[in-house]
Amino acid sequence: MTKPKIFIDGESGTTGLQIYSRLNQRDDIELVSIETSRRKDSNERAKLVNAVDVAILCLPDDAAREAVSFVSSTTVKILDASSVHRTAQGWVYGFPELNSGQREKIASAQFVSVPGCYPTGFLACVHPLIAKGLLPKHFPITVNAVSGYSGGGKNLIKQYHAFHEQQVGTTSLYPYGIYGLQFGHKHVKEMHQHSGLESPPLFVPAVGDFEQGMLVQVPLPLWMLDNPPSGEVIHQAIADYYQAEKFVQVAPYKDSTLLRDGMFLDAMAMNGTNIVQVFVFANDTTQEVLLVARLDNLGKGASGAAVQNLNLMLGFPEELGLC
């Protein structure tokens, strides 16, 4: 049996290296690489894109657009890990757990876009509640999230690594800092379109002094509603939505065993996995709920999600090569 050929355009980048590492261990596919000296050669990239079964794009947005323009083959499938096609017409959104039938759409599509890391956590929390009508579509949503510095790509990783090598005492390079303060972050449109909300959420991302890991927090002031659901009802709705899913885990309600010292939610606990964990914290007296998603920004937030989608596109078991 002929092994499907896979080309990673941008395999030297942060996400590309992670995907390559995951796929290079497998014997059921054939990885096709471009010569280092020809990585920016458009003719060579176009040739490889059209010569394989699946081309995975791990590129800046403009380069991803260029790579898609190379496609002339009607049989090659494109899996884009950039942000440029996540809300584009003709592209299937690569979040298999998002909706019933999403897996089938991914499996049959020629063009699939890998979700962003922040939107993955946000949608895992919010979409079930919108879909089930527990939150009205007009509800004003805010998102506060922190990611490890690997989410900033090669340059930010290099900055932190260089600083850590010279670190003296307890000083740090941006131990915690928010950004995107002009609003309109590129993930917002993706969050809005795939959540079912009428208006985009107010999104405030942050970077922390740790390499991998992510927490996405969505506070819900349910006292704004005429008949607010209880925290337990919210939790049960999300748990039911993902009850058959391997890669979306809903933590037990009011269970502190997953908290460090029974108090702290560690952003790095899902590192090295393709799992997003969802937590529901609630105070029914004050009618406040906090939804939190915890994931590896380079796992379920990037390379793990890409491999999960690739497996579906090739007709392989979805969990192959993932944990």
Largest sheet: 7 strands, mixed
**Given the helix and strand composition, which structural class is it?**
alpha/beta
Question: How far do the termini sit from each other?
Answer: 26 Å
How do the strands line up in the largest sheet? 8-9-7-10-13-12-11
Query: Oligomeric state of the chains?
Result: single chain
- The pLDDT mean sits at 92
Helix content: 25-40%
What sort of overall outline do the alpha carbons produce when their principal axes are compared? globular
Order of helices and strands: EHEHEHEEHEHEHEHEEHEEEH
Radius of gyration: 20 Å
Figure out the total of helices: 9
Number of strands: 13
Estimate the strand proportion. 15-25%
Uncertain regions: pLDDT < 50 for 5+ in a row?
Answer: none
Walk me through this protein's architecture.
The structure is a single chain. The chain is an alpha/beta fold and 323 residues long. Helix content is 31%, strand content 20%. The protein has nine helices and 13 strands. The strands form two sheets. A seven-stranded mixed beta sheet has the order 8-9-7-10-13-12-11. It has a six-stranded parallel beta sheet with strand order 2-1-3-4-6-5, with helices on both faces. Helix 4 (102-108) packs across helix 9 (299-314). The protein is globular, with a radius of gyration of 20 Å. It starts with a strand and ends in a 9-residue tail after the last helix. The model has no long low-confidence stretch (mean pLDDT 92).
